[in-house]
Design goal:
With about 250 residues, the protein is an alpha/beta fold. It is built from 12 helices and 8 strands. Bound molecules: 2-phosphoglycolic acid.
Length: about 250
């Protein structure tokens, strides 16, 4: 069975003290209330990762991650953070290609492919995001957009590298809008993505890849989404900023 992963992407929210409080609440509630099999990943701003990694270090099934990284290993890149730096403070996952990075920071597939390489090169796991805009869905070009995002960002990887990748399908029109893709819409895309991986890497490898859904996931819709055969967890934004709502989403995964 493939790994189920519920990740909380805090984006640019919470100061250090608030972030630590949120992380410790989540960890305590997961310990007390959750008996299921999902892996939980807390993805705070860079400044909080070291302390949160320490806080969760003896909690099984909870990891930390980063929201972005440099495509370079080191050097004169003012303001950038390398994957080796992230590794040295305990991060194990790195989100690559979130739609906000693509949209506001001009990150394109070829650059994202380099970031994926950097993450894997440090022995970390990329959470590679893909997703179409509303316009692309309405013009029915979403499948070809998704295919390009997946191929350009990931298909240079060999089998062993590909096995370390987590994919997050996040339709841009569903992020932070309160509009979730229906379970049928999400499942259709997840099956399509798994089909692309299967065509390139074979069925056995495709069956092992965790594909998360993201975009207005809440406790109210999580159980239905998680019951779909190709939805292996969630990348949660807004609802991850509160321990109760985030842990209720985790609890929706058996
Ligand atoms: P949302 O964000 O849950 O607030 O829609 C999801 C994401 O951007 O990862």
């Amino acid at each position: 069975m493939r790994k189920k992963i519920i990740a909380g992407n805090w984006k640019m929210n919470k100061n250090f003290e608030e972030g630590l409080a949120l992380a410790s609440e989540v960890v305590n509630m997961v310990k007390d209330e959750y008996q299921g099999g999902a892996h939980v990943v807390l993805i705070p701003p860079f400044t909080h990762i070291a302390a949160i990694s320490k806080l969760i270090s003896d909690t099984q099934n909870v990891s930390s991650g980063a929201q972005n990284c440099s495509n370079h290993a080191s050097g004169a890149y003012t303001g950038e953070i390398s994957t080796e730096m992230l590794k040295s403070i305990g991060a194990t996952y790195v989100i690559i290609g979130h739609s906000e990075r693509r949209q506001y920071f001009g990150e394109h597939n070829d650059w994202l492919a380099q970031k994926v390489n950097a993450v894997l090169g440090s022995g970390l796991n990329p959470i590679y995001c893909c997703g179409e805009t509303l316009e692309e869905r309405e013009s029915n070009s979403h499948f070809s957009i998704l295919e390009t995002q997946i191929k350009d960002g990931l298909f240079h990887l060999d089998d062993n590298q590909m096995k370390q990748v987590v994919i997050a399908y996040e339709p841009v029109w569903a992020i932070g809008t309160g509009k979730t893709a229906s379970t049928a819409q999400a499942q259709e895309v997840h099956a399509f993505i798994r089909g692309l991986i299967s065509a390139k890497y074979g069925n056995e490898l495709a069956a092992q890849i965790t594909i998360q859904y993201g975009g207005s996931v809440k406790a109210e819709n999580a159980a239905e989404l998680f019951a779909a055969p190709d939805i292996d967890g969630a990348l949660v934004g807004g609802a991850a900023l509160q321990s109760r709502s985030f842990v209720d989403i985790i609890k929706a995964m058996p």
